[in-house]
Design a protein that fits this description.
This protein is α+β, with helices and mostly antiparallel strands. It has an 8-stranded mixed sheet. Strands 6-2-1-10-17-16 form a 6-stranded mixed sheet, sandwiched between helices. Strands 19-18-20-21 form a 4-stranded mixed sheet, with helices on both faces. Helix 2 (about 45-55) crosses helix 7 (about 295-310), helix 13 crosses helix 16 and helix 13 (about 460-475) crosses helix 17 (about 525-535).
């Protein structure tokens, strides 16, 4: 089978490489006469880069890219509105990507200077592509990868009905002067009363791409596409923006800057007609707010090549390709339009931190909420040592009996300061440190009491409020956040009453730290007061406390740490036919659920000895799957933080 690919950009080159790996005959036809020497940089998601990793077999080439690990949206007065960690985003130049794809290529036929003109048909199917220079290329399958202004798309579906241009972008690159270690942050400064924003991304340690987005109604047309006019226009539009934004313009060569008139079009009813199929921007176009274009082009190439391999007929393959990609693509189109609406009408819309100017997995629906027979009201405190000792039991309960339990997390404290703890013997920080050391020895659970000597926690109210504020964003991420707070105080001796420590814990848990800070002074405080009032009504006097309910009626409670068998007895008393799930004994599988574990947690969950645990853990460590760090009374094991991208 022979594929004629029209368009030799990122989508076309990737498609050619994928098909060549499937032993297809491939011809790539590119209208330009040379490789691109200019072009802006873009953000790309790990999902897209993973497609390239599959092609990366035996070459010394490396794709020059910059990992971007934090997004911050702020107002011109520098007030932060969104601050969230990015795990899987990279920024790179288009020229680097094209060069890299060419370095992977063993294609013998990459023909430049071919601008598509029309198709030749026989029995209603395309048999050849005709180019403006008179060349004719025959084939079996024709793939349009010729971008947003696709002539291939127009030739099979008619003229495209684009959305009106409501937002323009001016794009440029700048040399980084001194960012104080901020070269891995995607920052955006956005007006709160009009459609105007300035953003910048690192492409390397000493260069960044920037963009000025503006409502076209704000322009008087003075931004002619020449260096002097563009710079003057940018400076005028950004006159009320902070100095760091204007400094970027000063280090920009506006000869390479340009205006991008943003637009999209409705999802096509199909990506193909007969034996002609579209990929990338030719098939679907999203507004730039989502940064979805390049990632989607790569995923298109992967999906289409796999469909052609798996299905017997071209029609079946093309249909599967469309059905596989359509929901995700539609979600990105919708998200781009929603982000544009928020951008153009900031007074009427509040992003509340939940909608990033990046593509999301909004099409991937969350699992339906399943009604479970038992509910547990669980009261804890992030600095309560007994609650820390309870962690292995809690984790094992979720794994074995999670099908029957809904755990409702609540927070409480014995008083506004640690001295008012209900452990009557603890009167000084030294007493607390000794108590924790005794617990660690007697209960075989790692915890380091030196935090009371090196940086005592004088009040736990701020982390309590932060947890309640986190629940407003996402209940599952809030639980991860609570666990991280406990790790920080019990294992890493960090004072979790300090905002900087809380913020880092929130970011590592997927919580928006800017929204969290705002909610800590509002709704978070109110929710904490509600938890404390409920604790009084329920007569909560110690942590952890678990109250078991069936059909909304409390029938049992456990105060403090008790044996795992006690919890099982309570569950089986009400649900005698309950069958506990078998825990996957693969150490690697367990770490995919719980990325940080002490040796005692690991051995308790798998019901093996500490000695057996160490053999399994050291084996994973030797294979490079996990890392560890020592504290004075034990070892903590964690998933290894290494780049998932090898290219």
């Amino acid at each position: 089978m022979k594929a004629v690919i029209i368009g030799g950009g990122i989508a076309g080159l990737t498609m050619g490489l994928k098909l060549q790996a499937e032993n297809w005959e491939v011809v790539i036809c590119e209208k330009s006469s040379s490789l691109p020497k200019s072009g802006h940089a873009f953000l790309i998601h790990y999902d897209g880069l993973s497609v390239l990793s599959e092609l990366f077999i035996d070459t010394k080439s490396r794709l020059l890219k910059q990992h971007v690990n934090l997004f911050i949206l702020r107002r011109p007065d520098n007030q932060e509105k969104i601050k969230i960690k990015l795990n899987d985003w990279y920024c790179l130049k288009r020229t680097e990507m094209i060069s890299f794809l060419h370095s992977l290529s063993t294609l013998e036929i990459f023909i430049q200077g071919r601008s598509f003109s029309n198709f030749l048909y026989q029995n209603n199917k395309v048999v050849a592509a005709v180019f403006e220079n008179g060349d004719i290329e025959y084939g079996d399958v024709f793939i349009g990868a010729d971008g947003s202004n696709s002539k291939v798309r127009d030739s099979i579906f008619g003229e495209t009905n684009f959305s009106p241009v409501e937002v323009n972008e001016i794009v440029g690159t700048s040399k980084i002067m001194n960012r104080n270690g901020e070269h891995r942050i995607f920052q955006k400064i956005q007006s709160d009363d009009k459609g105007l924003a300035f953003g910048y991304n690192p492409t390397s340690s000493d260069e960044e791409v920037w963009f000025l987005q503006y409502d076209v109604n704000l322009s008087d047309g003075s931004e002619e596409n020449n260096p002097e006019s563009l710079k003057a226009f940018c400076l005028e539009m950004m006159k009320d923006f902070p100095i760091d934004a204007k400094t970027i313009l000063d280090s920009t060569d506006f000869k390479s800057a340009y205006i991008w008139k943003t637009r999209d079009f409705d999802l096509l009813p199909s990506f193909h007609k007969e034996n002609v199929v579209l990929i990338g921007d030719a098939a679907h176009l999203t507004l730039p707010f989502t940064s979805a274009g390049t990632t989607n082009a790569l995923l298109d190439a992967k999906c289409l090549s796999e469909s052609l391999r798996e299905f017997k007929t071209i029609e079946e393959a093309f249909t599967n390709y469309y059905q596989t990609r359509v929901l995700e693509v539609q979600s990105h189109i919708d998200q781009g339009r929603l982000l544009k609406k928020i951008f153009l009408n900031p007074k009427e819309n509040n992003e509340r931190g939940f909608l990033l100017p990046l593509m999301s997995d909004s099409n991937k629906q969350k699992s339906a909420i399943i009604e479970k027979p038992l509910k547990i009201i669980y009261y804890t405190d992030p600095q309560c040592s007994a609650s820390w000792l309870f962690q292995p039991i809690l984790r094992k309960l979720k794994l074995e009996y999670g099908d029957y339990l809904t755990i409702d997390y609540h927070i409480g404290v014995g008083g506004p300061s640690w001295e008012q703890s209900n452990i009557g013997s603890i009167k000084t920080p030294l007493d607390a440190a000794k108590h924790w050391a005794e617990l660690s020895a007697s209960q075989n659970m790692i915890l380091d009491g030196d935090v009371w000597l090196e940086g005592p926690l004088y009040s736990s109210y701020l982390p309590l409020i932060a947890f309640k504020a986190a629940q407003l964003q996402d209940s599952d991420k809030a639980i991860t956040f609570l666990r991280r707070l406990k790790e920080l105080v019990f294992l890493e001796k960090k004072n979790i009453t300090r905002w900087g420590i809380i913020e880092n814990a929130a970011l590592s848990s997927g919580i928006d730290a800017a929204v969290l800070k705002e909610d800590c002074t509002g709704k978070g405080s109110q929710l904490l007061e509600a938890d404390l009032e409920l604790a009084k009504d329920l007569k909560i006097t110690m942590f952890p406390t678990l109250i078991f309910l069936k059909d909304g009626i409390a029938f049992n409670r456990i105060n403090g740490v008790q044996t795992y068998e006690n919890f099982e007895e309570i569950i089986l008393e009400v649900i005698p036919n309950a069958v506990k799930n078998t825990i996957n004994c693969s150490a690697e599988a367990l770490f995919s659920l719980y990325p940080n574990m002490t040796e005692s947690e690991f051995s308790f969950i798998l019901n093996i000895s500490i000695a057996e645990s160490r053999i399994l853990l050291n084996d994973l460590y030797d294979k490079g799957k996990i890392d560890n760090y020592r504290i004075k009374n034990g070892t903590v094991w964690k998933v290894k933080l290494s780049s998932k991208i090898s290219i």
